[in-house]
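Hypothesis: this fold can be encoded by more than one sequence.
Test: take the structure tokens below, design a sequence, compare later.
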């Protein structure tokens, strides 16, 4: 019989932290799971370390360096459970995480849920800022500004993951923001108020700190929603979020002396404002953000 829950851990050069993540899965009070660790081209001996600590329910898959979205997607394709749970390699779970979440989802027939988290920054417990606090249920509008769904806290059905279109592998960052918006557009995302994930941050290789201008990629995700035909007040919310982000990006580009980039966002602003004024009939054209060589070299590890 296949396991009910498939746990996917993507990793890149996180050998020192990965063991905590793996051990936290092995120590779960709920036992009907499989764990797939996807090594995304590590060069620090990660694969050897995982093999040396191999557990009966743990599998290792290695791929050439393709990014966190591709690593998660490969893990899901290689898994068998009806439920999918992701865990980032710098985070770890408290022992009852899977038990609490599977009980909730089976009792409520929810297709997706997430749990609260404990935040550790540079080894010190911190409280999330107000803007990072999670809501429950219809989280779509609140999530337009920044990602309020944590991969390490999510469990969802395989059917929902496949139907939503999986992680977009063209996104080097903000791939989770993109997926949760596509899901949150049509589905509530309940929150279990119990903190069951320890989320560690502040380390130099954290993906969200590895590149500037994350809103460049959030705008791409918002553009995808517009292209999908999202309508009504949700379309207005998306356009308003794009307007705010384009203002910030244009100002940032000018500050760095990148006038051509600033002009692109100024033109985008004009189209956004035009659609807000006359309705949803205009097509907004947004060029794919290009990464400099220094940006590309910085994008070296999953969140």
């Amino acid at each position: 019989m296949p396991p009910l829950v498939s746990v996917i851990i993507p990793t890149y050069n996180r050998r020192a932290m990965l063991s905590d993540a793996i051990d936290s899965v092995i120590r779960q009070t709920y036992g009907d799971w499989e764990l797939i660790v996807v090594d995304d081209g590590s060069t620090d001996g990660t694969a050897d370390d995982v093999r040396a600590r191999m557990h009966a329910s743990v599998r290792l898959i290695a791929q050439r360096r393709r990014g966190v979205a591709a690593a998660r997607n490969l893990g899901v394709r290689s898994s068998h459970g009806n439920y999918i749970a992701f865990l980032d390699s710098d985070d770890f779970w408290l022992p009852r995480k899977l038990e609490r979440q599977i009980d909730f989802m089976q009792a409520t027939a929810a297709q997706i849920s997430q749990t609260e988290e404990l935040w550790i920054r540079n080894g010190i417990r911190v409280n999330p800022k107000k803007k990072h606090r999670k809501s429950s249920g219809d989280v779509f509008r609140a999530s337009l500004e920044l990602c309020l769904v944590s991969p390490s806290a999510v469990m969802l059905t395989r059917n929902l993951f496949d139907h939503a279109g999986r992680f977009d592998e063209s996104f080097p960052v903000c791939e989770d923001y993109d997926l949760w918006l596509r899901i949150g557009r049509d589905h509530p995302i309940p929150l279990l108020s119990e903190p069951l994930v320890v989320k560690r941050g502040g380390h130099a290789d954290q993906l969200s700190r590895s590149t500037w201008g994350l809103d460049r990629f959030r705008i791409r995700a918002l553009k995808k929603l517009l292209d999908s035909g999202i309508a009504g007040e949700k379309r207005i919310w998306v356009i308003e979020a794009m307007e705010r982000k384009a203002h910030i990006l244009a100002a940032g580009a000018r500050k760095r002396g990148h006038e051509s980039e600033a002009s692109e966002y100024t033109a985008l602003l004009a189209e956004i404002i035009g659609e807000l004024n006359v309705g949803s009939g205009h097509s907004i054209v947004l060029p794919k953000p290009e990464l400099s060589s220094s940006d590309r070299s910085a994008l070296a590890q999953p969140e």
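Confidence is low (pLDDT under 50) at residues 280-289, 291-303. The longest strand covers residues 191-201.
Hypothesis status: open.
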